[in-house]
Specification:
single chain; mainly alpha; two-stranded antiparallel ribbon; 7 helices; 2 strands; CAAX prenyl protease 2/Lysostaphin resistance protein A-like domain-containing protein; endopeptidase activity
Amino acid sequence: MGWLTWQPLPRVHLSFGLEGLLVGLGVGVAEELLFRGWLIDELRWNCNFKMAMWISSTIYAALHFIKPWTEIVRTLPSFPGLLLLGLTLGWARQVHQKRLGFAIGLHAGLVWGYYLVDVSDWINYTNQVPEWVTGINQNPLAGIVGFGFLCALAFVVRKIGEFGVTLD
């Protein structure tokens, strides 16, 4: 389609991989313990799981916008993607009887993949399509393609839970 071009990986790609893995694991563990672990369980004291998950996911998405006003406005198109990501990770928590392993692994893997592509400049956008297609400010969560991928991921995670498929 020509929307982006893949670049050769730099020679230090192994260090990018290890660094990205550590970042992914750190973010995955910290955010899942906080938002899909502690916060959902606290909210469950006052509401059902579905409401607790929506509240937790909204807070999760909103806290990604603690930054100067101009940055909030610039990155605001990623809010729906962050909200859907929070919901998807909440559903991932439910797949394993409220244990966080799958959610942590999924979150860490997504952060790791994004880190590898972004930090290593592995792709260049060709600007042949509008930014809202591939991701405003090169953020895939702020574009139709990335949001579509996230919708597909959410669908798969929900179906795993609905059919009682265990990933153990």
